[in-house]
Amino acid sequence: MARKQIVNADIVTAKGVLKGKTIIFDDKIEAITDKPEDGLETLDGSGKILLPGLIDMHIHGYNGYDCSDGTEEAIESVAKGIVANGVTAFLPTTMTVSVAELEAAFEAARKVKNRQNSEAKFGNSTATVIGVHAEGPFIAMAKKGAQNPKYIINPPDAEFVKKHSDIIKMITIAPETDDNCKAIREITSETGVIVSAGHTTADYETMQKAIDAGVTHATHLFNAMPSISHREPGGTTALLFSDKVSCELICDGIHVHKGWFEPVYRIKKNKLNLITDCLRACGLKDGSYESGGLKFTLKGNECRLPDGTIAGSVLKLNEGVRNLYESGVPLHEAVNCASLYNADTLGVDGERGQLKEGLCADIVVCDSALNVKEVYKNGELAFKE
User: Fold this and answer.
1) What is the 3-state secondary structure (H, E, C) of 344-355?
2) Are residues 39 and 71 in the same domain?
């Protein structure tokens, strides 16, 4: 692989923005410096902003494909398509579908992950599959949202999670459906799977017990959770203010009002994880689509079930970063919330998540409005507008 350098760029690091610098890389980042090196393939970054590759830990589909389809083609197509949004690693996220469909989706993700590890060309052109986020089936019927009630399973089955713990990186569970948090304790003590609270009616006390039992993450904070009240703070408040819990946030202004973006950042800081919750309709025209066996309609930027329930998003992760930044969060911190802090939550911060010497050269070249122009994956050009 030929060594390269991008010169005259503004480089977003974990601690701030470095103006007019040079980044030197092959498959890994070698240096961020003031002085370009002679003899290297040189790219002019004048007027451009360089970000680390973004990480989406909650994305269901893209451009007509869904991660619950149960095919390698679906996972591969999502992995290829989202690179154009600056995403270089992700958790393919399954819906509440039948056990057979879940296992087919898990197997497809396994195969794609193995192919990425064994085929350099394929791995360098697609977003890395870190593992699967299983959003259900162990959720509360009363907060099912756009999940299919036919396939909800209560109480949670720890044996099922353990059986697939080689590929499941995160599992969403409604703690109130888990008697005395038995499954949560078993999963977190016997596997490396992250237990996330979501699609839940849990009150404050129940959620505190779940956090003590091993819940360390919250699935799309505020959505499919109890409302916050001064008399009944609910499980949402327990998640928001726990130092042990990282929280996903969908910064599209539809799932969560933009007035919450900056305050949530101030509360969670390095425990805030931007996600998309993106459906197969992302990248497609307005119309009728399906997710997890349920029909939904895309109109503009909104996806809704026939009864009006929000079904998911068509948000792109670089757009989420822009929205958080425009709410008043410093640029480098808005980027961290979609890269470094997500890598830290998933335990891969030693490999990726920031532009730093020794980490993989996943580099996103943006204009001043954070529109993605080019993406380098492991130092190879993976996308060019």
Assistant:
1) HHHCCCCCCCCC
2) no
**Which element (helix H / strand E) includes 18?**
strand 16-25
Q: Are residues 95 and 17 in the same domain?
A: no
Q: pLDDT digits over 216-225, tens only? A: 999 999 999 9
Residue 106 Cα to chain centre, angstroms: 17
Tokens found for residue 281 = 């309709």
Identify which of 378, 372, 384 has the alpha carbon closest to the alpha carbon of residue 86.
372
Dist. CA 96–CA 68, nearest whole Å: 9
- Nearest alpha carbon to residue 58 among 188, 247, 193, 332: 247
- The encoded tokens of residue 57 equal 């830990």
How is residue 205 written in tokens?
């006390």
Six-digit token pair at 26? 């092959």
Handedness of CA 91, 97, 103, 108 (dihedral sign): negative
Alpha helices by DSSP H, listed for 256-339, are 261-268, 317-326, 331-336
Task: Provide the CA 247 distance to its chain's centre, in angstroms.
Answer: 11
Nearest to 33 by CA among 344, 357, 336: 357
Supply the range of the domain harboring residue 281.
53-353
Place of tokens 């410096």: 33
Amino acid residing at 113 = K
**Average per-residue pLDDT for the chain:** 96
What does the pLDDT read at residue 199?
Answer: 98
Determine if the pTM surpasses 0.90.
yes
The tens digit of pLDDT for each residue in 152-190 reads 999 999 999 999 999 999 999 999 999 999 999 999 999
Of residues 129, 67, 92, the one with CA closest to residue 280: 67
Q: Which residues are catalytic?
A: 277
> Cα angle vertex 44, ends 42, 48, to 5°?
140
Q: Are 53 and 364 in contact (CB under 8 A)?
A: yes
H/E segment holding residue 145: none
**Does residue 163 sit in helix, strand or coil?**
helix
180 in the same domain as 239: yes
Would 82 be classed as within a structural domain?
yes
Could you report the per-residue pLDDT of 303-315, keeping only the tens digit for each? 888 888 887 888 9
Proportion of the chain above pLDDT 70, given as a percent: 100
